């Protein structure tokens, strides 16, 4: 890439891919933007008309919106908390030399390979079901009343399911980071009189900050769009107790046949995600350089 | 105080015996160098003393107290690692202060000691930088600073200069020696470089395959090597070792004579040979001379000694500087 000539050639070569990607993004986005300003209901085909900001107004003033926003934040925050803390602890555990380490590591990674719909259904029917679920059996064996997780603690249950899926990802990233920790640094800290807890706080944790940043960034992107787990377990209910923004957009456009309102919701979701992204980059992005 | 005594210390990794039973006394204030080829167990021995490895058998006494089972932090020793092992996310100041902070020392005392160490080691202008922004020599000094603030009973150095370039290494060698002069604390220093061993040590411990071959002052080892291994290891360039009938004339299985103890002449001498490669160092010239019936001999001549490839020369070993070794490799 040294000469002017090779630079031009490189730009020319890359351009088809860049243009394709741009179109791929820009066409659906502009169509969504266009629909969001239309009065567009699937029950009244051919009656589309321009309505200005109405769709946005109705979506934002919908009481379900503020509930969905809170739920989204709780869902993302809760899952991040569980996966980062749990992932660090699991990674520390898996980093210990032990017999059958390879097999155990593969087993730990396994949940990540299960598709969200399947894992949510398994959790719903085999674990959390108040009659047949494993937790109900355990509760009865202990002489307690079975707890109907998805009815009484829907959001917490979904956080649990999603966290279960993402824990292996966090563990994997943090484990590789742990393995790159210089052994002599640990020994130096040991010589310096740092106990196990101090060694974790002053040596291991600072070493893991970059990996934790990566986990938080990547997971946030995916967790803002959690949908399948909600659809197959609670359908966003009871009421709006487990509806997040993504699910609200789905409900608006496909359950209420209101494409215009759904599009407005989609645009709002994009804006919110960008705000989150900017804040995340500001807060922890500086860990990534140097 | 820093008197360290090893009694029958053994180290095994599974079946492999790395150090078969070893005894060693290190007096207070001594600068002891463990030297040997790579894989001879010198670093393992240092780690045993530090407490980073468990002793398989035997005892380690520090100032008369049995420290065999003590955790590293309780032994009162400080270690400087080959990779320096600085904490990359902490500034120089925090790195040096870390052991004191772990000891729950008062902040004012910590500051005083850190400033003091930084002054001794010329680190004051870098004190708020991170290790990543320092050069190799500066990192090395930070690692030493982290060791000295604890005022330990003894310092352990694990090949601390091997990551530095040659010029810096000579400098740091002097600095560490001076530090030892001013602190008068026991220092144990591991190296594979016999020049470091010779220049720094009060006492050299030559190790080979986990066994101590010889213990003594640099000049004792130079003058009276106890066996072939020490004879070949100490001294640069290596001692010439000659076997066969020529050695038998001197009543030995193997005779050894150092390059600097062979007189060279163009007229007469004991052995006649032909000059091969000559290495001109300025101050000295090392000639590699081929003599019939002997391995190539290295001979030291004056810096301006003018010889050419293929010249015939006569060599005579200085009679009182000949080392004689028996069939078991021990000195006679």
Automatic annotation (TrEMBL), chain A:
Q: Which UniProt keywords apply?
A: Cell membrane, Membrane, Transmembrane, Transmembrane helix, Transport
Q: What are the subcellular locations of this protein? A: Cell membrane
Predominant localisation class: membrane
Q: Could you tell me which residue ranges the ABC transmembrane type-1 domain spans?
A: 69-280
Listed under GO biological process in this entry are: transmembrane transport
Q: Which domain of life is it from?
A: Bacteria
Query: InterPro entries, alphabetically?
Result: ABC_transporter_permease, MetI-like, MetI-like_sf
The keyword Acyltransferase is annotated on this UniProt entry: no
**Which GO cellular component does the record give, naming just one?**
plasma membrane
- Listed transmembrane segments: 12-37, 73-94, 106-123, 155-178, 208-228, 264-284
Topology in the lipid bilayer: Multi-pass membrane protein
Q: Which CDD domains match?
A: TM_PBP2
| Family note | Belongs to the binding-protein-dependent transport system permease family.
Query: Would you tell me the protein name for this molecule?
Result: Sorbitol ABC transporter membrane protein /mannitol ABC transporter membrane protein
Q: Which organism encodes this protein?
A: Cereibacter azotoformans
From TrEMBL, chain B:
This protein is called Sorbitol ABC transporter ATP-binding protein /mannitol ABC transporter ATP-binding protein
Tell me which SUPFAM superfamilies the record gives.
Answer: MOP-like (SSF50331), P-loop containing nucleoside triphosphate hydrolases (SSF52540)
Do the record's keywords include Transport?
Answer: yes
Q: Which GO terms describe its cellular component?
A: ATP-binding cassette (ABC) transporter complex, substrate-binding subunit-containing; maltose transport complex
Q: Which domain of life is it from?
A: Bacteria
Q: Which NCBIfam families has this protein been placed in?
A: PRK11650.1
Q: Which Gene3D superfamilies match?
A: 2.40.50.100, Nucleic acid-binding proteins, P-loop containing nucleotide triphosphate hydrolases
Family recorded in the similarity comment: Belongs to the ABC transporter superfamily.
Task: Offer an example of a GO molecular function term for this protein.
Answer: ATP hydrolysis activity
Check the record and name the PROSITE patterns matching this protein: ABC_TRANSPORTER_1, ABC_TRANSPORTER_2
Q: Where is the ABC transporter domain?
A: 4-234
Which Pfam families does the UniProt entry name for this protein? ABC_tran, TOBE_2
Sorted UniProt keywords: ATP-binding, Nucleotide-binding, Transport
**InterPro entries per the record?**
AAA+_ATPase, ABC_transporter-like_ATP-bd, ABC_transporter-like_CS, ABC_transpr_MalK-like, ABC_transpr_MalK/UgpC-like, Mo/tungstate-bd_C_term_dom, NA-bd_OB-fold, P-loop_NTPase
């Amino acid at each position: 890439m040294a000469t002017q000539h090779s630079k031009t050639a490189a730009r020319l070569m890359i351009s088809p891919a860049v243009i394709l990607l741009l179109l791929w993004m820009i066409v659906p986005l502009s169509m969504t933007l266009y629909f969001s300003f239309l009065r567009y209901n699937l029950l009244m085909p051919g009656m589309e008309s321009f309505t200005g900001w109405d769709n946005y107004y109705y979506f934002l003033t919908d009481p379900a919106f503020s509930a969905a926003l809170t739920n989204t934040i709780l869902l993302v925050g809760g899952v991040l908390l569980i996966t980062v803390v749990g992932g660090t602890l699991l990674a520390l555990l898996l980093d210990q030399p032990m017999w059958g380490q390879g097999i155990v590591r593969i087993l730990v990674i396994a949940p990540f390979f299960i598709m969200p719909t399947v894992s949510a259904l398994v959790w719903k029917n085999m674990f959390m079901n108040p009659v047949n679920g494993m937790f109900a059996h355990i509760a009865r064996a202990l002489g307690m009343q079975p707890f109907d997780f998805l009815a009484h603690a829907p959001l917490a249950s979904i956080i649990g399911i999603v966290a279960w899926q993402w824990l292996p990802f966090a563990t994997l990233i943090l484990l590789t980071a742990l393995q790159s920790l210089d052994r002599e640094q640990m020994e130096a800290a040991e010589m310096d009189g740092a106990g196990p807890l101090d060694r974790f706080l002053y040596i291991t944790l600072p070493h893991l900050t970059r990996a934790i940043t990566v986990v938080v960034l990547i997971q946030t992107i995916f967790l803002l769009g959690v949908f399948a787990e909600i659809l197959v377990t609670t359908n966003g209910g009871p009421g709006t107790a487990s509806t997040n923004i993504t699910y609200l957009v789905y409900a608006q456009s496909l359950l209420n046949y209101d494409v215009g309102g759904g599009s407005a919701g989609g645009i709002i979701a994009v804006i919110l995600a960008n705000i989150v992204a900017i804040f995340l980059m500001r807060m922890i992005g500086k860990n990534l350089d140097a | 105080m820093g008197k360290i005594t090893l009694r029958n210390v053994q180290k095994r990794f599974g079946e492999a015996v790395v150090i078969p039973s070893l005894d060693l006394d290190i007096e207070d204030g001594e600068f002891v160098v463990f030297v040997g080829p790579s894989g001879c167990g010198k670093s393992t021995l240092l780690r045993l003393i530090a407490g980073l490895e468990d002793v398989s058998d035997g005892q380690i006494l520090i100032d008369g107290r049995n420290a065999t089972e003590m955790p590293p932090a309780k032994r009162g020793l400080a270690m400087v690692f080959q990779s320096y092992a600085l904490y990359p996310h902490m500034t120089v100041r925090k790195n040096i202060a870390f052991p004191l902070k772990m000891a729950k020392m008062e902040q004012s005392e910590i500051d005083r000691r850190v400033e003091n160490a930084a002054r001794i080691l010329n680190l004051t202008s870098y004190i708020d930088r991170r290790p990543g922004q320092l050069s190799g020599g500066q990192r090395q000094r930070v690692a030493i600073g982290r060791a000295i603030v604890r005022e330990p009973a003894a310092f352990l150095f694990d090949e601390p200069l091997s990551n530095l370039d040659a010029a810096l290494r000579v400098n740091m060698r002097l600095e560490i020696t001076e530090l030892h002069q001013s602190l008068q604390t026991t220092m144990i220093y591991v190296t594979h470089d016999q020049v470091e061993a010779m220049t720094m040590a009060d006492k050299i411990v030559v190790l080979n395959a986990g066994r101590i071959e010889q213990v003594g002052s640099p000049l004792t080892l130079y003058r009276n090597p106890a066996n072939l291994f020490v004879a070949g290891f100490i001294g640069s360039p290596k001692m010439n070792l000659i076997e066969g009938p020529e050695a038998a004339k001197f009543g030995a299985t193997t005779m050894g004579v150092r390059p600097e103890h062979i007189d060279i002449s163009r007229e007469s001498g004991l052995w006649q040979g032909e000059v091969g490669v000559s290495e001109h160092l300025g101050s000295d010239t090392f000639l590699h001379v081929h003599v019939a019936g002997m391995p190539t001999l290295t001979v030291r001549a004056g810096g301006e000694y003018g010889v050419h490839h293929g010249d015939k020369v006569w060599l005579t070993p200085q009679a009182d500087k000949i080392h004689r070794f028996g069939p078991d490799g021990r000195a006679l």
